[in-house]
Amino acid sequence: MTGAFRGFGLSILTLTILGGCAATPSTDTQQTQANTQASTQVALATPPSVDQALTLKQIMANPDWMGILAKGEYWSDDSQSVYFARQAHQSSLLDYYQQPLNSTEAAKLALDALHQADQQYGVFDEARTRKAYIYQGNLFVKDLLSGKVSQLTRQNTKVDGVRFLTNGDIAYWQGDQVFRIHGDTDLYEQIANIKMAKQPKGVEAPSSYIAKQQHRLIQYVALKQTQAKEKEQYQAELAKQDPTMSAKTWYLGDEETVSQMSLSPDGRYLLLSLVDKNYSWRAEHDIMPNYLGSQGYVDAVPARARVAEDKYPGERLVLLDLEQHEKRDITIEGLTGFDEDVLASVKAENAKAKGETYKSEKAPRKVQLMQDWGWTQSAMQWQAKDNKVAIMLEAVDNKDRWIATLNLKSGSLKTQHRLHDDAWVNYNFNQFGWLPESDTLYYLSEETGYSHLYLKASDAKPQALTQGKYVVSDITLGPKAEYIYYKANKDHPGIDNVYRVKIADGQSEQLTQWDGQLDYSLSPDGSKLLLKASRRTQPSELYVQAIGGELKQLTHYTSDAFKQYPWQAPEVVKVPSSHGAGDVYARVYLPQGFDKSRSDKYPAVIFNHGAGYLQNAHYGFSGYFREFMFHNLLTQQGYVVMDMDYRGSKGYGRDWRTAIYRNMGHPEVEDLKDGVSWMVANTHVDGQRVGTYGGSYGGFLTFMALFTEPELFQAGAALRPVSDWAHYNAPYTSNILNTPDVDAIAYERSSPIEHAQGLQKPLLVMSGVLDDNVFFQDSVRLVQRLIELEKPMFETAIYPVEPHGFRQPSSWLDEYRRIFKLFEQELK
After folding, report:
1. Which residues pair with 329 in a beta bridge?
2. Can you give the pLDDT at residue 39?
3. What mean pLDDT is predicted for residues 234-259?
4. How far apart are CA 118 and CA 128, in angstroms?
């Protein structure tokens, strides 16, 4: 489940909102270093002084005043400039820019020049002198030596994929058709035409008595039959011998559709993933009413299916030999554990609860190509110069991930690596590929409890290139395949840096010395890093650093108004767990003029981040930028604010992630209890005057806290909240709770609507009517449940035009006015 990450923009109208603040901002870098070294101590830094109080209208205004930041950044092909886009808040259009490394200004690209701009995604020939890419659905090729760009297609039917073949030819595919452009003749050849239909029967001989009689007695009918058969045989022979004919059509049946395809480097083999054509992401009744339709009526907007009804059938693989015109159905028997009953204990527990007995039996499991939520690569990876392919598959039950190689002659799979998790295999950290001209794979795996980088030669044991209690991500194979570059949080869970490991000896070296959060990309020539980096009070900007060189800031798009305001940089602390979880990392904001010796204790608020699997207690600028500013406002009003990375959050390894398996909302509330205790002990907080709020997963957690621990918080606000996990989507929920038909116990244990009778303190429920992520129906059902339980202590607010992540400043303002009012009424 995704939290509401919002972009930034720039508006001259609102630049004056905070322009009068002349106070010196705190030095975020120095605070980061000090807090990293002393995160276990309870001595907290004094918040910066403020000579102009924040207002909700300022915070929730159109965020353009903060600056239109660069997004979608990538390197030019020659590694000498950087491309990026900028998009004003609520604009549907992107502006594209190119900034040379030796310039302080970026040039805006004209619309008629976009097709010639270096593209972020593309494929290279073996010599890396040509790059093929798709722009606006058409195919282009760039000569990297001369810079000349050639357009190869101009069609309304978009090109879906492209690759260079080992002989330099270009292959591309559109829909279910594959084409080859011969470099020596410029001939366009259709090498595969796939029809998801039954094979035509052709000319059939008479079979019934009447048909045979007709052919025996009527010479004309017999003649037409003979002529038709002769033509059919002639066409078949012509197709075999005439070199000008296109390839024969593949008829793969009418019960499936092509999900993905991948062509071998020499163009001989086409690997397909097929899925049942009757599967749909929604059913007819899956609609979302838009009460403010443009024509004045209620519009029925299609919406996704719920996990309780989404029965994904899995995928199957088929290999087509385009040279021999032979089809091989790929079996899954080569996947280790392909038929294990991995949910046996869960099924037995649920059967016992119903007074039944479950008998475990082996049976083939449903599988699909790996669905990583963050990568851009394919789950089917060919060795660049050889017909070797590795495929990453996952079980639909979420318990296994396999990397398997395919025998092209037999169509059988061989497991090279199996990652099993009794909870669920992560939908991140799944990058993999081949080392050039070898039988060695590199990949990420969480098998030790943390995502790390491995090498594995065929039929050999894996070799760990990284190890330790930190998370490795975003791996990049260097252009000479000497190093693999990666991002990791080695020094602190909330601090990212870039490293590289030498493949030959496994030695790692740190390349950056950042003290916040960052993302990176390696230049095509392998000499430089492009960083998008932020600190707690500094939004992301672009930086360039030569390998072994100094860091240079490339963009300066954060507005002066935002930079000049003395934002409080939250301290990142460790909250000791009293429930066996170790330390829980949290951000803490202190009140203005914080005085631990004063007689009156402070009220406090705990913010619950969204997504569940998301990290927010880090040293970078939070994606929840409005909440960051709101927390600064609360400190000006005398509140202590805490923002916890409760169990289930990202950045802390596998065990932290899976602590909520089949038990959502319970470990997290335990962590919130420890957070309240920590604030009482260290920040002079009155434990009887603490509130909580959050959106999406944070709204769900607000429900669970108020329903299951009614004395913990005195008030709570749940924004766009999940109330019943059976109504959320399958890809997210089935990981954590399995499916309702298999594991009803987990759903009933984890869904707030099942615990609503526990509500005792004031609750505010706020939802967007057009939320196609967490349906408005979730709030409607919970409200009716609370009404029937005769609970008088809740209120609701609806936002008729808002999706999951609100867009209108007026909606944001209304929402947070209500949250602030709730806290002022119940906690002061």
Report:
1. 318
2. 44
3. 88
4. 14
Please check whether residue 61 is in contact with residue 629, taking contact to mean a CB–CB distance below 8 angstroms.
no
Which stretches of 451-510 are DSSP H helices? none
Rg of the chain (C-alpha set)? 30
**Residue corresponding to tokens 């699997």:** 613
> Could you tell me the pLDDT band of residue 30, with boundaries at 50, 70 and 90?
low
Segment 601-609 shows an average pLDDT of 98
Strands 495-502, 508-510: pairing is antiparallel
What would the two tokens of residue 266 be? 């020499």
Check if the beta carbon of residue 289 is closer than 8 Å to that of residue 300: yes
Closest C-alpha to 335, from 255, 396, 394, 261:
394
Side chain identity at residue 767, one-letter code: S
Counting every residue written for the chain, the total comes to 828
What does each C-alpha distance from 73 to 85, 103, 529, 554, 622 come to in angstroms? 7, 16, 12, 11, 19
- Rounded CA-CA distance 80/73 in Å is 14
Amino acid identity at 405: T
The position carrying tokens 């030999």 is 321
In terms of Cα–Cα distance, which of 605, 537, 640, 622 is closest to 820? 605
Measured CA distances, 586 to 33, 257, 676 (Å): 16, 47, 11
What distance in Å separates the CA atoms of residue 171 and residue 161, rounded to the nearest whole number? 8
Tell me which residue of 243, 241, 244, 223 sits closest to 233, measured CA to CA: 241
Region of residue 321 (left: phi > 0; alpha: psi -120 to 50; beta: else): beta
| Beta-bridge mates of residue 287 | 302
Nearest by Cα to 708 from 647, 661, 755, 749: 755
Examine the pLDDT at 133 and tell me if it is beyond 50: yes
Distance CA 405, CA 389 (A): 6
Token representation of residue 268: 């001989």
CA distance 95 to 101: 19
CA–CA distance from 353 to each of 107, 422, 736 (Å)? 66, 21, 20
Neighbours of 449 (CB within 10 A): 14
pTM for the model: 0.92
Strand partners of residue 140: 133, 151
Q: Does the structure show a pLDDT above 90 at 826?
A: yes
Mean pLDDT of the chain: 93
Is 738 buried (19+), middle (13-18) or exposed (0-12) by CB count in 10 A? buried
Q: In the numeric block, which tokens belong to residue 47?
A: 């918040």
CB neighbours of 688 closer than 8 A, spacing ≥ 6? 714
Number of helices (H) and strands (E), helices first, in the chain? Answer: 14, 44
Answer whether residue 776 shows pLDDT above 80.
yes
Q: What per-residue confidence (pLDDT) applies to 245?
A: 76
- Give 177-201 pLDDT, tens digit per residue: 999 999 999 899 999 999 999 999 8
- pLDDT higher than threshold 90 for residue 131: yes
Query: In the structure encoding, which two tokens stand for residue 589, read together?
Result: 């904001």
pLDDT at 34 exceeding the cut of 60: no
CB 462 within 8 A of CB 449: no
Element (H, E) at 229: helix 219-241
Q: Measured at the alpha carbon of residue 162, what is the angle toward residues 157 and 167, in degrees to the nearest 5?
A: 135
> What is the predicted pLDDT for the residue at 42?
60
List of residues 6+ apart from 391 with CB closer than 8 A: 271, 317, 369, 379, 380, 381, 403, 404, 405, 406, 413
Please compute the mean of the pLDDT values over residues 796-825 and round it to a whole number: 97
The b-or-e profile of 517-556 (16+ CB within 10 A means b, else e) is bbbbbbbbebebbbbbbbbbbbbbbbbbbebeeeeeebbe
- Note whether 322 and 192 are within 8 A (CB): yes
pLDDT above 50 for 5: no
String of DSSP letters for 697-766: HHHHHHHHHHHH-TTT-SEEEEES--S-GGGS-HHHHHHHH--TTT-HHHHHHH-GGGGGGG--S-EEEE
d(CA 161, CA 178): 9
